[in-house]
Amino acid sequence: MAEANETDIAIIGGGIAGVASAYHLALAGKRVTVLEKGAVGAQASGVNFGGLRTNGRAMAELSLSLRAREIWRKLKDLIGHDCETEFTGHVEICDREDHLAAVEKWAPEANAFGVGAEMLSGAAVARRFPWIGRRMLGGIYVATDGAANPRLVTPVFARAVRKLGVTIREQEPVTSVGYHNGRFEITTGKGAVIRSPILVNAAGAWGKRIAQHFGEDYPLDVMAPQMVVSEPFARQVTATVDYPVNGRFFYVRQISRGNLLFGRGPGRADLDTSRASYVPQNVFDASRIAIDILPMLKGRTFLRSWAGVEGKTPDSLPILGPSPVRDGLIHAFGFSGHGFQLGPATGAVVTDLILKGKTATDISGFSPRRFKTS
Amino acid sequence: MSLEKIVIIGSGPAGTRAAETLLRQGCRNITVISEAPASGGQIYRRQPQGFGRQADEIYGSEAEKATALHRSFDALAGSVDYRPNTLVWNIFDRKVFTNGPDGVEEIPFDRLVLTTGAMDRILPVPGWTFPGVFTLGGAQIALKHQACAIGRQVVFAGAGPLLYLVAWQYMKAGAHVVAVLDTSAFANKMAASLKLLALPRLMFRGLKFRRDLKAKGVALHEGVRLTRIDGDRSVTAINFTKSGVTQRLACDAVGLGFGLNPEMQIAELAGGRTRFDRTFRQWVLAHDGEGRVAEDVYVAGDGHAIGGADVAELTGERAAWAVLADLGLPVSAERQSVIRRALKRQAIFRQGIEQSFPLPAEWLVDTPDETILCRCENVTFGEVRAAITELEPNDVNRLKAFARPGMGRCQGRVCGHVLAELLAAETGRPLEEVGRLRGQAPVKPLHYKAAAGMAEAGIQQWLEQADKVLENG
Amino acid sequence: MRLGELARPALEIKIDGKRFACLAGDTVLTAVLLAGRHLRQSEFGDGTRAGFCNMGACQDCWIYRADGERIRACTTYVEGGMDVYTADPQHHVA
Ligand SMILES: Cc1cc2nc3c(=O)[nH]c(=O)nc-3n(C[C@H](O)[C@H](O)[C@H](O)COP(=O)(O)OP(=O)(O)OC[C@H]3O[C@@H](n4cnc5c(N)ncnc54)[C@H](O)[C@@H]3O)c2cc1C
Ligand SMILES: Cc1cc2nc3c(=O)[nH]c(=O)nc-3n(C[C@H](O)[C@H](O)[C@H](O)COP(=O)(O)OP(=O)(O)OC[C@H]3O[C@@H](n4cnc5c(N)ncnc54)[C@H](O)[C@@H]3O)c2cc1C
Ligand code: FES
Predict the structure, then answer these.
(1) How far apart are CA A289 and CA B449, in angstroms?
(2) End-to-end CA distance of chain C, in Å?
(3) Which of A260, A291, A296 to mutate to test the interface with C (most CBs of C within 10 A)?
(4) For chain B, which domains are there?
(5) Chain A interface disruption, residue of C64, C71, C83, C90, most A CBs within 10 A
């Protein structure tokens, strides 16, 4: 029999966007229920690169990203665990004139927001990062950027959120959503019906499917960023490095235990099975770049590769804001490969929108209205 | 005749019989890939060139079978595309990815026969990472493959038929075996004796090993609980309790093993289904009774479920008949039924073995917090327990994500089942509910350099172009 | 310890810069363990290791060639003049 549950706010999706939203809402005293089809933080939020960069972000994202940076710094105070966060800097390196020119244009604009980016000459790149094996024309560096362990962040957030009284229902997929008498009616695969006046769509790559229940059809594609991790070795790579090759970024960092992690995609994703698989050719290509940029890898081995399911919009900006067609519905999905860093602030913005109807963070670039949805 | 490309992985008893049958029945496009430098697999592993021992010195009572298998393989090796020293590290898009003497390659296949064998099943005992502690199989390989003993005073500890076999082989070869510490009580074996009688020759061989060991003054202790291996920079002693009394034996090496675990990652990457087997207390591949485990994928030998060498030969041939049937080639119903009958007897015997040597998994809840559970990543029981209570993982893959056991070089081959046992025990859930570590590629570490050899030309061009920009700049 | 098969050709390899005698057909693991009782240090400071499975499964026996290349000791055979290190030679130089 259908079991009825009342709540102030229902959130679909237990990724970092959903769980961080629950966190801020619960702090504000709201009754919140999170519905997650699998386990919390087991999708993109749990398998990503863990990069916390403001460096190189689109202007439209900087306001949100800087708000996130403040939250990441206080993570331990907020959720009782630092989740291996560290702020050891992020550098984007350039060996092409056009790339360097783009970066030089970006820096002053970004610094006007308070990013704190520093332009480096080729010689400065070589001096600061002696382990980079190629000469560069230059680079751009943000000392306050960092990384965290994604496998821990969302589950630890979830633990904190439960302590605040939030109900998180795992292994409970939302199978249909309706709207009756001023309330959302959310039915789950376990036959439960949850009713709430407010609904947050934080369903990640599946956000499009949730929106479709309301007749909104967003142009959301599926993408699958792909990772490779090395055997552990004494730490040399201190900063996170971004390096574009043939139009796609190669990004790398080494965790304090010594494993080196790099990414270059795209792998393959399947929304129906919720699984992504890595494509071997990407590993080959990335390995070629890796031993070139980091000669220390020449004799070493890697242990694993994987990919994660992520939603991608045409402009690579998230869909974050009130639904244009249904009052009380807030969208927060489609982070297009870089929403981990944004996650904690996304939750804060969702909370602002629900509690105050507006937010001081500039989210104008994320408006759901920028797409034609019907 | 068939020209469909059949790739066989493994050149042990199962792989050899599969290749032989397929070749004899008209398959003309067979590739055999094995990480091993020579055929024979684990049990009939060949010694390197330049060694002089005769087959009966190495394989004892099994010398005839070993020689027959080697001969079969040598006879077929010239008619197949044989790639020794070659690791298969991934299956993707109907291609086998290898790393061998010529680097990384992709080999497309029409059908895939997996005979990847097994490795020792281990239960961590405090001190199990000290130098001088090897798996039982590892101790045997030292002898068979290197004419070496793992120490001057060796103790064999654990459960399973290999325990007595390896101790006996060491004794015969002139090594000093201090003791055999069998964690299974004598009563277990009595209870299983009827089933073991399904294969009387094997049962009596086992009894002979014990008799010979005793006659040589090797201490045999049954029903023991291993409590600690002492060591400094390497092993100095092993401690155990028997009927409540603690004993300590000085030794400089320990061979440790509790049966075997199938090597299934490759099958999983190929889409193979798995199931939990209660008798064996482990996951095995769920095939259709003839070795079909996924579309165009077939399995045999210890890599699909532990059965020993004879079962490996039988199931290797069985998988070949399944391939032939699916190719529309004639099959021998007579051979198939002979195999089926033989496997039935073997299955009863196997149950007897499992009953004789149950895995003492109940130890794990009492294993001290500071004991290492995952030897690759140095994760302790305490750290895993903390992750279980604090973050409440619903399955082993999630536990791995939280606390890192199984994330190291061995991909969880060694500790994966321990992790599952511990999670099940600590949370009071059935073992099959907590799942198993998913197979992930590469199944063994791969050099970046080898992978880089397969990069697209465009990457190389980009890097060369960058060099030019920098020279001009 | 060796139990026989001593008639094989003798070879010399270097382990951590020191010369040791071994026999053709030895694995690197065999050679290193005959020269001393351990093979390598665990990366995480929990002491010495000496391989475990001896069959290329547990991956607990990866050491180094002089140029820093990783090798799996139990499945690599010795070659005359081989120069192996039980700790990262790159790291020592650096
Ligand atoms: C390999 C990889 C590397 C990355 N690297 C970085 C990086 O370094 N830095 C960075 O900032 N970002 C990175 N990203 C992107 C980042 O991980 C994502 O943008 C972010 O995690 C998105 O969070 P989310 O909560 O929106 O989505 P998710 O984490 O995907 O969460 C959505 C959740 O909704 C659930 N769900 C979906 N449908 C339903 C339903 N019907 N009912 C119930 N639940 C449902 C899903 O199961 C899922 O758990 C990377 C992504 C990947 C895959
Ligand atoms: C160390 C050890 C010692 C044993 N000793 C005995 C014994 O003395 N008596 C006994 O009855 N049983 C013994 N067994 C049990 C033994 O596994 C079986 O009796 C028999 O060898 C099984 O045959 P198989 O063909 O299934 O697998 P194996 O004989 O194990 O052959 C598997 C083959 O596949 C290859 N392989 C595996 N994975 C890959 C890959 N990814 N890429 C390429 N090649 C791969 C291996 O290199 C190997 O050559 C032992 C097992 C082990 C692990
Ligand atoms: S000792 Fe296990 S892989 Fe070498």
Answers:
(1) 10
(2) 36
(3) A296
(4) 6-119+261-328 (3.50.50.60), 122-258 (3.50.50.60), 362-434 (1.10.10.1100)
(5) C90
Does C46 contact chain A (CB < 8 Å)?
Answer: no
pLDDT-derived band at C86 (thresholds 50, 70, 90) equals: very high
A12 lines ligand 1 (CB under 6 A): yes
Q: What are the residue boundaries of the structural domains of chain A, listed by start?
A: 2-47+151-218+316-370, 90-143, 226-307
ipTM of the predicted assembly exceeds 0.85 = yes
Strand pairing of A221-223 and A310-312?
antiparallel
All chains having 3 or more CB pairs closer than 8 angstroms to chain A: B, C
Please list, in sequence order, all residues whose beta carbon lies within 8 angstroms of the beta carbon of residue B428, skipping any fewer than 6 positions away: none
Q: Which pLDDT score, from 0 to 100, does residue B335 have?
A: 96
For the domain made up of A2-47+151-218+316-370, give the CATH fold: FAD/NAD(P)-binding domain (3.50.50)
Give the confidence band of A175 by pLDDT, cuts at 50, 70, 90: very high
- Give me the percent of chain A exceeding a pLDDT of 70: 99
- Domains observed in chain C: 10-86 (3.10.20.740)
Question: CA–CA separation, A41 vs B91, rounded Å?
Answer: 28
Q: Which of A136, A170, A284 sits opposite B455 (nearest CB)?
A: A284
Q: B323: which residues sit within 8 A by CB, 6+ positions away?
A: B6, B18, B22, B27, B111, B113, B298
pLDDT value of residue B466: 80
Show residues of chain B in contact with C55, CB under 8 Å. Answer: 42, 119, 137-138, 141
Q: Is the pLDDT of residue A249 over 50?
A: yes
Residue in C with minimal Cα distance to A298: C69
Residue A321: which of A288, A369, A261, A275 has the closest Cα? A369
Residue B272 Cβ < 6 Å to ligand 2: no
Among chain C residues, CA nearest to B149: C1
Q: How far off is chain B from C62, nearest CA to CA, in Å?
A: 10
A303:B452 CB<8 A: no
Q: How far apart are CA A233 and CA C91, in angstroms?
A: 9
- B67 burial type by CB count under 10 A (0-12 exposed, 13-18 middle, 19+ buried): middle
In a 13 Å sphere around the CA of A23, the CA atoms on its Cβ side amount to 26
Tell me whether residues B402 and A151 touch, CB distance under 8 A: yes
Distance from CA of B59 to the nearest CA of C (A): 16
* pTM (2 d.p.): 0.95
B437 CA to middle of ligand 1, Å? 22
Which ligand gives the minimal distance to the CA of B303?
2
Kindly report, residue by residue over A22-52, the tens digit of the pLDDT: 999 999 999 999 999 999 999 999 999 999 9
Per-residue pLDDT band at A334 (split at 50, 70, 90): very high
User: Which strands make up the sheet holding B245-250, listed edge to edge?
Assistant: B225-231, B235-242, B245-250
pLDDT profile of chain B (473 residues), mean per 10:
95 98 97 96 92 90 93 96 98 97 97 98 97 97 95 96 95 95 93 88 88 95 97 94 96 97 96 94 96 98 95 98 97 96 94 93 95 96 97 96 96 96 96 94 97 95 83 64
Residue C91 CA to residue A232 CA, distance in Å, equals: 13
| Residues 6+ positions from B445 with CB-CB distance below 8 Å | A231, A301, A302, A303, B409, C59, C62, C70, C72
Q: Is the CB of B15 under 6 A from ligand 2?
A: yes
Query: What pLDDT is attached to residue C91?
Result: 66
Task: At A281, list the tokens.
Answer: 């050719």
Distance B309 CA to ligand 2 centre (A): 8
CA of B126 to the centre of ligand 3 (A): 20
- Mutation target for B interface from A252, A288, A296: give the one with most B CBs within 10 A: A288
